[in-house]
Structures are given as structure tokens and as C-alpha cells.
Amino acid sequence: MNIGLNVHLKDERFRYHIHEIVSAFYDAETVVYTCDDVAEENDQLFVNISEIEEDFKINIELYCGEKRVNREFTVSQTVKFADDTDAPALNRARRFLKAELYELFSQTLERKIPWGSMTGIRPAKVVNKLMKLGLSEEDILTELKSRYSVSDSKAKLALEVAATQAEILKNTAPNAISLYIGIPFCPSRCLYCSFTSNPIGKYKKYVCEYLDALIFEMNETAKLLEEADFTVESIYIGGGTPTSLEAPDLDRLLEAVNLIWTPEKYNIKEFCVEAGRPDSINTDKLKVMKARGVTRISINPQTLSDKTLEIIGRKHSREEFFKSFNMAREEGFDNINVDIIAGLPGEDCSMFEKTVDGILKLSPENITVHTMSIKRASELKMYKGEYLLTESQSVEKMISYAYGNITLNGLNPFYMYRQKNMLGNLENVSYSKLGFESSYNIHIMEEDQTILAFGAGAVSKFVCGEVIERAFNVKSVEDYLKRKEEMIDRKRIFVYNYLVKYRVRK
Predict the structure, then answer these.
(1) What is the pTM of this model?
(2) 116-167 tens-digit pLDDT
(3) Which domains, from first to last, does the chain contain?
(4) Residue 21, exposed/middle/buried by CB under 10 A (0-12, 13-18, 19+)?
């Protein structure tokens, strides 16, 4: 991967889609888009595109060292992927170009990628669409493998996830929405993190004012929902680390949530709090959450190696995780998720396998297995050269081990997503015991339900049929405190334009 790539392209409408493929084979930082200034030691890709009415004629030339390959094809109105339905001609051309580029690079560089040319973050969403179109399981597997070059194991995984989701998606009320409440504070910042999170020690003076603003935003938005006649299916409090709040502050927040979104009125099915950092949990906070009706919590060690925990900036040990998990059980929590990460700096397969085996002994209701992602705003990205990253083949073995052993213990994959810059171009998968699937996680990935989001850095997603619009809250805590009314105004516009009007039309 030391050799870079020069991409010669005039039609900028295709640049993003080309980059999705080439960055799977080359370090994204070595890919240069140019027609003039080129690094001669790099490989060269020439993409020429001509458009005649709704047909696209595409010519690709690739020079990799001494190898030279060429492909030419036409994407016409009659050529489609099975899930294209009425996709615009430009979108069809982009998808076919991605598929052709994947095959070209895969054969020339003699390297296969598990998800082939399927670069989107929601593989199961494609499968759900194919299911709605009436394709059989066999036809869906064929489509994934022939059109996208998805491997057998990943095609099977996507189908399993979609099958598990089917019943939940089918039984969702048409006027149901979900809520996300963001607490942008953490005990400390993890090496790999890019979320909106601020060290609680430094921001302690803002906590009271932040909760004031957050409760105000929720109260005002609740009035909008009353007018629009929406019901709330699930509530998810994330961050950051919500349990970085002291017990009285956490109690104040949860009490407000219950007063605003009365469980009896809204028939809330799921109330989840990310208690992600074991060092942020104590008996008082667990008692508060239990008393306020929280039904699901997430306790996330990421690894059971104390050495790795120190490297990634987690201020707790494996024993503290076990202690926190057992405390939660003692307080009556019967739906606990545990997050782990495959490919953490310095970890090999045996270390990861010990983590998987150790977590399974606890018998949690959910296990979420993340693949290490080098996120743009993380410290790991900034200082990547200082850390030993896991090889792609080793990460594949880790993910395979997790799938095999977790499913063997009776948990099935129920939601999945992918991110940019994931090691091995793999995926994140959440496994669940039967009946403990998180509807919030399913809906946010399938993008079939409106998510109203509150707090600094939160993003509301308004889903109206095939139309999806987003309203962004400002990221910094200081800005959020000054502009909380503006955050409500942004929601007001979307609730009216994209929800109420849409329902009237229906």
C-alpha cells in the first residue's frame, strides 16, 4: 500500500464514487486527482465518461506497474441493479462504474474485499429493499454476489440481519418516532474517538446549565409533537458518556425525560442509556436509572486486555468492567449490551479471542462487535504512525471468530453498519438474544423512522417516505448554550414542512 494512485478524471460528478472504491485498495492519503501534476512512481487510473441522452459510455484504463488493463462499457436505461427501480441514469452509471472498478482493481492487484463494491454504510438496507421487491433469499444472495461481488459469508450475514429486522420493521406504527438525547461529556477521551465529547472534569461548571438547555429544548420540541400527533417508540441517551454525570444530575435528566415523554402516554417500548465507561458507573447511578424506567444499558469495555485499555486511553481495568457488569445485574438490569472492538492497536487474534470468550461467560443480552476505524477527528488518526495497527487479514479472522462463537451461544446478528477507513473494509455488527433486539438501532440504520435529537452535536433525521432531511445542532457545548432557541427553530421548520405536510398529503 506504499504506492499511490493518480486518478485522471474530468467529470467531477463521479469523483466521490470512484474514491469509495480506490480508497479500499490504496491509502486514501496517496490518491491524487489530477490531469497535470502527477507522481510518476504512482499507479495511474484514467476514467473517461461521455453522456448521450440517458446513456453513459465509460472507458477505464489502469496502469499498475508493468500491468495495463482497459475496460469500456455503456450504461443504458435498460441496465439496472435489482434494487434500482426508478433510479436516475446518473446514479445507475455511478453504481456500474464502482462495480467495474472493483473488478478491475481486484483482478489486477489480486486482492478481494469482503464487501466488494458495496461501499455504503447500510448493507442490510439493500437486502430489505430486495425483500420488499419480492426476491427470494436465493435471488438476493445471487444479486449481492454477482452485482456487488460481496463474499459468500458477508452476503449471508446481510441476509441474516435483514431477516431478524423484518418483524420489528413490519410492526412499527406509521406515526412512531424515536428520540436521541446527547450528553457530550466523558471521563476522558479515547484514542479512537471522534464523537462530540468533552472531559467532564474540565466541563463540570457547564453541566447544570447544559441540562437546563437540554430540558428546555426537549420541552419546546414536545409541544411540536403534540400538534403533529406523533408517538415515541424509543428513547436513546448517548454521547459522550451519559453516566459521566453525577447521580443527582443523571436523576434530574431522567426525571425530566419521564415528565416530558410520559411513558404511559407515548407507549415507549425501549429506554436505553449508554453507561459505556465502566469507570463512570456506580450503584447510585444504576439505582437512579432503574427507578426512572431505563430498560436497556450498554457497558463497554472494548477489550479485556489491561495493556490495551491503557494504550487507548480508557481509565479502567478489566476487573472494573466485570464489577460494573455484575453491579448492573444486582440492580435488576436484564437487558445489557457490551461493546468490543476488533483490531485495537497492538492486539493480536489471541487477545481478541480472550475478550470474546470472557464476554460470553457473562451472558449479556447484546454484544456489539466493532471493527477498528481510523476516524478523521481522532487522536489515532493524528498520530497513526506511533501505533501498531492490526493487519487486515488478522482483523478478518477476529470478526469471523466473533461471529462463529457469538452465534453458537444463541445470539443472532440484528443490526449492522459500516464506516469509512475501517480496517479490512469490514463491518460493525450487534448480536442479540431473541426478543432483546434494539428497535432504536434498527430504525436508525434502516432510515425508516424519524429520529429527533437533542443536545450539542445531535443530528435530527426526518424521514418522510423516500425523503430524508437532517437538522444539525451545533457541536460545541458553549455554542449550544447560547443558541438553544435556534436548535428548536430548526426542528420546528422540519416538523412542519417534512412531517405535518407529508402526512396531510398521504
Answers:
(1) 0.90
(2) 999 878 899 889 989 988 999 999 999 999 989 999 999 999 999 999 998 8
(3) 5-111 (3.30.160), 123-171 (no CATH), 177-276+450-506 (no CATH), 296-334+336-435 (3.30.750.200)
(4) buried
